[in-house]
Design a protein that fits this description.
486 residues, alpha/beta, eight-stranded mixed β-sheet, 14 strands, 45% helix, 13% strand, globular
Length: 486
């Protein structure tokens, strides 16, 4: 079964959040004490699976974010260790795999998933995910799902769940892909690795001449990512942070540390503000801004035009403070501006609540970062439900905003200054098209961004740089550097 160690592309998927627990018994929670009585009923309910089910329900009913809901539920149910890891794998994995799961459920149920009661659909998604994408035994996956359905909906609905899951268990993942996937190559890969076809096509377009890597990219996008930390310059080194956290120093950013798991918020350097969670790709974007060559002296007047929630502003502020420079950080929403203030406390950063398109700031900045609002297609591995919420219409709406923000930054830039435009999306409409439009209208000089990321290979044909999960282990960050002629 693909995803359960059978070999082939994508066979590296971890079971139970990487715990290596292999097949489980009918308790199924990796050996923890995760079964409890519920609501006075005679049947027992598996607590990690119940938490995962409740996450799926919150996402379905309230458009909630899984990464915000799950930690709260884990604390409420007092899950720890393997039980918490199992609940995390089930919740995030099922959210990521929704398209594949729904196609299998519809085939087994003989009806569209829209005609299935929502609470039952949550249980079915959880059960099919275990059958096809973990090493949980079929008996455990079916029986625990039936328990969940019976406890909430009664024996009749539990029988429906039992019948659907038993049909799903009759085929392996590869057999379901062969039965249900579209015939075209991109559509097939999109189905196999649980991505909407339009996103897979956008990735293929961005890969260009290396579109043959699409399967590897989608597989990497479907894996549980490492946690990336950033060591605040001047407070702690990456080497020191790695020793304190038990992690490994990053490959590309001199401030990055990788963690295989755990709660980074419990680490003392994170609690004390000496470190934070930040993808290494985002760190490289901030570093590119500081390294880009100016014409004339750097007066130390820098701007982060789209600063919320503050990760890049904090790294830039720490670097600016070493040289006595200063950052203005613009964020239009007050609650996000407060996040920027918290991230940049004790740093030479002034947070300004304003629309970046009409900030009211005085022109003359040496360096400006436009980390533009985007579809976030480059960070889907960290936002499990996001791939099923985005639509092509989002791209059209956002590219207008992206062009306006980059134009506003250009107007605030001094002659000889540089603006770095970045997105956490590789979609060509959000990246090279926006940059090309700005160059056409302003006469900007585009610099080669690749030398500003020293040691990082395979960044594309230039002059922009494109990071990829399957090549670099980062989010798919796009980086372009424009300089204003004197």
């Amino acid at each position: 079964m693909r995803g359960a160690g059978s070999g082939g592309r994508g066979s590296g998927r971890r079971d139970a959040a990487g715990t290596g627990a292999g097949r489980r018994d009918s308790a199924g929670a990796g050996g923890g004490s995760g079964r409890r009585q519920h609501g006075g009923r005679s049947g027992s309910v598996d607590a990690p699976r119940e938490v995962a089910r409740d996450v799926l329900r919150a996402v379905r009913e309230r458009d909630a974010y899984a990464n915000l809901v799950l930690p709260v539920l884990i604390r409420e149910q007092r899950l720890a260790g393997r039980d918490a890891a199992f609940a995390t794998e089930l919740a995030y994995g099922a959210c990521r795999s929704l398209g594949l799961l729904d196609a299998v459920i519809a085939d087994c149920a003989g009806r569209p998933v829209g005609e299935i009661d929502g609470p039952l659909l949550d249980v079915l998604r959880l059960g099919v995910y275990q059958l096809l994408r973990t090493r949980v035994g079929a008996h455990a996956a079916v029986d625990t799902s039936v328990d969940l359905a019976r406890t909430e909906s009664g024996p009749g609905k539990a029988g429906f769940v039992n019948a659907v899951l038993r049909r799903a268990a009759e085929r392996s993942t590869d057999e379901w892909v062969e039965r249900l996937a579209p015939r075209d190559p991109v559509g097939r890969l999109a189905f196999e690795y649980a991505h909407p076809t339009w996103i897979a096509q956008a990735f293929a377009d961005a890969l260009g001449g290396r579109a043959g890597e699409l399967g590897d990219l989608l597989a990497a996008d479907d894996e549980r990512p490492l946690v990336h930390l950033v060591a605040r310059p001047g407070d702690i080194t990456a080497e020191e942070l790695a020793l304190v956290s038990g992690g490994d120093e990053g490959r590309w950013s001199p401030y990055a540390v990788y963690l295989d798991g755990g709660d980074p918020g419990k680490l003392e350097p994170v609690r004390d503000g000496m470190a934070a969670v930040q993808d290494e790709g985002s760190q490289l974007v901030a570093l590119a801004l500081t390294r880009a060559p100016l014409l004339g002296a750097d007066t130390g007047r820098w701007l982060d035009l789209c600063a919320g929630p503050g990760g890049k502003a904090a790294l830039l502020g720490a670097l600016a403070g070493i040289d006595g420079f200063h950052i203005d950080a613009v964020e239009p929403a007050e609650h996000r501006a407060e996040l920027v203030r918290k991230s940049t406390r004790d740093l030479p950063v002034t947070v300004r609540v304003a629309d970046g398109r009409d900030s009211g700031l005085t022109p003359g900045y040496d360096r400006i970062l436009v980390d533009a609002p985007c579809t976030g297609l480059g960070a889907l591995r960290r936002r499990p439900e996001a791939r099923w919420r985005r639509t092509p219409a989002d791209v059209r709406d956002l590219t207008v905003l992206q062009r306006e923000l980059l134009t506003a930054a250009w107007d605030l830039l001094r002659p000889g200054g540089v603006v770095v435009y970045s997105t956490c999306s590789p979609h060509l409409s959000e990246t090279v098209a926006v940059v090309a439009d700005t160059i056409r209208r302003t006469g900007a000089e585009q610099l080669d961004a690749r030398p500003l990321l020293p040691g990082v290979p395979d960044l594309g044909d230039g002059p922009a740089a494109q990071l990829w999960p399957h090549r670099h282990g980062t989010d798919a960050m796009f980086v372009a550097v424009l300089r204003k002629p004197e």
